[in-house]
């Protein structure tokens, strides 16, 4: 399964990446599992770890960690939003 | 009937307000909101004096999120049109950030929907603010008060 | 800080909205309301087709009543300025009748005060409306819904 | 006691007067008594009678029928207001 991952705002700066394309192991089915997978890279990637205040979207819609990730999805991770 | 713009350019409040009722004689009420960059808000962050802020957003998702909020407002109240404009990029104190305009036959619906859109926009549209200071940039945290404001529409 | 005008001339929504924050970097929120002459409202009165309405007022008392309403809003919420403009004379469907603009640091106060001023204006400012029809003039009755709207601020 | 009385909107049209200056008998002390006094003129003036939906102001402030009337006051009678 190949997906695109975007990072925004302070998270983008912490990670040093605005986006990447990933091929996922078959063991990863949900958004929450993807996030844990990325956090396991260690170092700055612990910013995605459990307990960190990170929000996520799949295909430009904010969703929870239980939602399934599908091939060619656009996934985004970002801090809580502060518009207006 | 609903229109959304995400842009770096400023907007014209008079034209946008007039457009919500132009040629529509059933419109009796237009409620609007303009949000501006506040000098004291910037300074309240602590540290060096803040001279500007930069608004980052998620192109594509932002427009979808704002359209969804407008559609939700139309489902909750009797409305005749909505307009949302949100800027991104570098802004200085006094600059307009956001315009929300709602047209209806009656003022109660227009007021409620305008406030609802602002509350939801604060917590659901993917914008992030970074303050510029002489020491560098500083990201603005999301406010719990905004979550509370959005939450009261869910009862 | 509070400004009231009672006039037969139209007003400029863009200029009035901008004036509420101009040179005041502590303003973060401007809520406004524009009321317009509705075609269907006129027609709903029954009888001949309505082509216009004439707004009569009580010169002197009108200004005092609007100033008192603005002062009451400032006592209830943290505001940085209010602007009320109410027209009188002959108006046709689509014409602007009233403008209320409220500036504050925070949007919650600005929204609440703007709606409060409109509700009180409807029941406390001495204006009366007469619809013009081919059969002659017809006075518009005060609405019980307006009394109810004003009453909810008294709890 | 000499007062000025103004009439507005439908009441002005019904009465055929927009204003008048009145010298009041000493027996009239309150706004309610003034209104009853005027209604006793009969004919169109019954529009000011008890039970009719009429509002009043003394010196440009809306007040109730119990409020005292004083020399040189500006009194106004009018229908319920409909601004905005």
Q: Could you walk me through the main structural features you see in this protein, from its secondary elements to its overall organization?
A:
- The complex is a heterotetramer, with two copies of chain A (84 residues) and two copies of chain B (155 residues).
- By secondary structure, chain A is α+β, with helices and mostly antiparallel strands.
- Helix content of chain A is 19%, strand content 26%.
- Chain A has helices at 9-15, 31-39; strands at residues 2-7, 19-23, 55-58, 61-62, 74-78.
- Chain A has a five-stranded mixed sheet with strand order 2-1-5-3-4.
- The longest helix of chain A has 9 residues, at 31-39.
- The mean pLDDT of chain A is 96.
- By secondary structure, chain B is of the alpha+beta class.
- Chain B is built from five helices and eight strands.
- Chain B has helices at 13-19, 39-43, 61-76, 107-124, 144-151, and strands at 2-7, 29-36, 52-57, 81-87, 89-91, 96-104, 127-133, 136-139.
- Chain B has a four-stranded mixed sheet with strand order 1-4-6-2, sandwiched between helices. A four-stranded antiparallel sheet of chain B has the order 5-3-7-8, with no helix packed on it.
- In chain B, α3 (61-76) packs antiparallel against α4.
- The chains are: A alpha+beta (84), B alpha+beta (155).
- Chains C and D meet through β3, α3, α4 and β7 of C and β4 of D.
- β2 (29-36) of chain B pairs antiparallel with β2 (29-36) of chain C.
């Amino acid at each position: 399964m190949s997906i695109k991952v975007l990072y925004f705002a302070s998270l983008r700066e912490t990670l040093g990446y605005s986006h990447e394309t990933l091929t996922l192991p078959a063991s990863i089915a949900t958004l929450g599992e993807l996030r844990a997978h990325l956090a396991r890279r260690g170092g700055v990637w612990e910013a995605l770890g459990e307990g960190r205040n990170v929000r996520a979207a799949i295909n430009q819609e904010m969703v929870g960690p239980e939602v399934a990730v599908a091939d060619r999805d656009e996934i985004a991770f970002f801090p809580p939003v502060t518009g207006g | 009937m609903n229109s959304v713009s995400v842009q770096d350019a400023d907007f014209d409040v008079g034209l946008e307000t007039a457009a919500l009722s132009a040629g529509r004689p059933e419109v009796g009420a237009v409620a609007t909101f303009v949000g501006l960059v506040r000098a004291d808000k910037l300074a309240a962050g602590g540290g060096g004096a803040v001279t500007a802020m930069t608004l980052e957003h998620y192109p594509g998702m932002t427009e979808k999120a704002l359209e969804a909020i407008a559609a939700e407002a139309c489902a909750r109240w009797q409305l005749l049109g909505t307009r949302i404009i949100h800027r991104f990029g570098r802004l200085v104190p006094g600059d307009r950030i956001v315009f929300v305009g709602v047209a209806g036959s009656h003022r109660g619906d227009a007021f409620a929907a305008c406030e609802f859109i602002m509350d939801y926009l604060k917590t659901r549209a993917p914008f992030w603010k970074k303050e510029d200071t002489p020491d560098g940039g500083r990201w603005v945290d999301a406010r719990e008060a905004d979550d509370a404001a959005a939450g009261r529409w869910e009862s």
